[in-house]
Amino acid sequence: LATNLDRLGGLLERFRRDGVMNLIGGETVPAQSGATFDNASPVDESHICAVAKSGAADVDAAARAAKAVFPAWRDMGGTERKKILHRIADGIVARAEEIALCECWDTGQALRFMSKAALRGAENFRFFADRAPGARDGQVLPSDTLMNLTTRVPIGPVGVITPWNTPFMLSTWKIAPALAAGCTVVHKPAEFSPLTARLLAEIAQEAGLPDGVWNLVNGFGEDAGRALTEHPDIRAIAFVGESRTGSMIMKQGADTLKRVHFELGGKNPVVVFGDADLDRALDAAIFMIYSLNGERCTSSSRLLVESSVAAGFVAKLTERVKRIKVGHPLDPATEVGPLIHKTHFDKVCSYFETARSEGATIAAGGARVGDTGWYVAPTLFTGAQNDMKIAQEEIFGPVLTAITFEDEAEALQIANDIPYGLTAYVWTNDLTRALRFTDRLEAGMIWVNSENVRHLPTPFGGVKASGIGRDGGDWSFDFYMETKHIGLAT
Ligand code: NAD
């Protein structure tokens, strides 16, 4: 911990001195109004740096820069774009430790997970780099009188709006395919975690990405974010965040007919049948809710466990939850760090009272840890019913709600009885049941006898209030590109 803190101290000096400013057309610039806001660490509420508080004029400058350079970037060969994107990945790998340390301090996420998240960001760039040369691939569909060509072209400058949970990895996940497709980008990162978005844009600049292809505009959702979604030169918005913000963005973008891609909230079930490998299921259920502070869209925040095995399973779970190590995010032993900010901490803590008033049991946690920083104890609610708020609402912290079910039909009914549909996890050794059950589950992504393991060629996205559209593989290009038909008379 001491070594990491020492190293971090050196890394933060530049942010203290220069703040986190915008990057527009290759120039580091403050907000045109000169306004800034304070960025504080969730670890101890200490000031990290000032951040540019951008408004519509800054977004306009960034959108113009992205528009001006779009034709050149679009027309650059995919092979050339591939080389640049690989150089960005190299830059991420070279600075992975710096990224991880800054991200932990900015977000409260534990270092043991963030070191991997930085490298996963590099993988995202490599994956889409390799696909850049084929991004325009189409088909020939001859008819009696026409040679019909179907091809793809990049849609134009796009806006990318990202949240504060794993901000680095999520930014790479959206920006890498946009660049590979030939789009230019204006990125508005979350106001609560601006450090690594700035590092990422710098890495891209150092990798030789032409000025204006990637612009960074900091600020709040209601002004900078809103202006981006309303800007006429921005052709599409890739957004990751809360479901209700997605709904606002859809309204804001209506006048300019924005194409939208939404990765939104979740309240994902992990369904454990009595015939499953219960030890593996226990490990996975714990990992999927108590890693990344539970501030994870794909977390398994509802445990549905078959009544025949529930008592033993929940007893073991309770013991394990009580032993999870809460601590400083830069301590390599820490599993759960502080939540992102006071408002979110207050929201998460409010569910402890909600659980009591709804008649559930707090089997573990249910309290603040320490009196500095936004730490909460890993929490387990048991004896819950699916109509309780603790079972229906996205808490977005290290909080698991356990519900029992009698049979497969009831498990399915509970699993689907929720506004969300991002992921689901199913544990059973009955293959027929797995096929039947997953076919009927309302979720965009389902893992059977596994925690969430991302394979980049597969589709990523949610149904119902959890999202619109898919990322990953070629699906990302469906969003960032237009499909074009050309019919030639033969
Ligand atoms: P949020 O919706 O509050 O903010 C996300 C981003 O939107 C921020 O950059 C914010 O400034 C911006 N924003 C806010 N209001 C806006 C507006 N009116 N117009 C334009 N931009 C606006 O979300 P958050 O609290 O930062 O992130 C947590 C949420 O993100 C959770 O609900 C989580 O489930 C979700 N999430 C989903 C996925 C997924 O893949 N489905 C991944 C990560 C996070």
Automatic annotation (TrEMBL):
SUPFAM superfamilies listed in its UniProt record: ALDH-like
Active site: 263
Classification via Gene3D superfamilies: Aldehyde Dehydrogenase, Chain A, domain 1, Aldehyde Dehydrogenase, Chain A, domain 2
UniProt xrefs under InterPro entries: Ald_DH/histidinol_DH, Ald_DH_C, Ald_DH_CS_GLU, Ald_DH_N, Aldehyde_DH_dom, DH_HpaE
Pfam families: Aldedh
Domain of life of the source: Bacteria
Annotated Aldehyde dehydrogenase domain residues: 31-486
Keywords annotated in UniProt: NAD, Oxidoreductase
UniProt KW NAD keyword: yes
Protein family according to the UniProt entry: Belongs to the aldehyde dehydrogenase family.
PANTHER family in the record: 2-AMINOMUCONIC SEMIALDEHYDE DEHYDROGENASE
Name of the molecule in the record: 5-carboxymethyl-2-hydroxymuconate semialdehyde dehydrogenase
Species of origin: Seohaeicola nanhaiensis
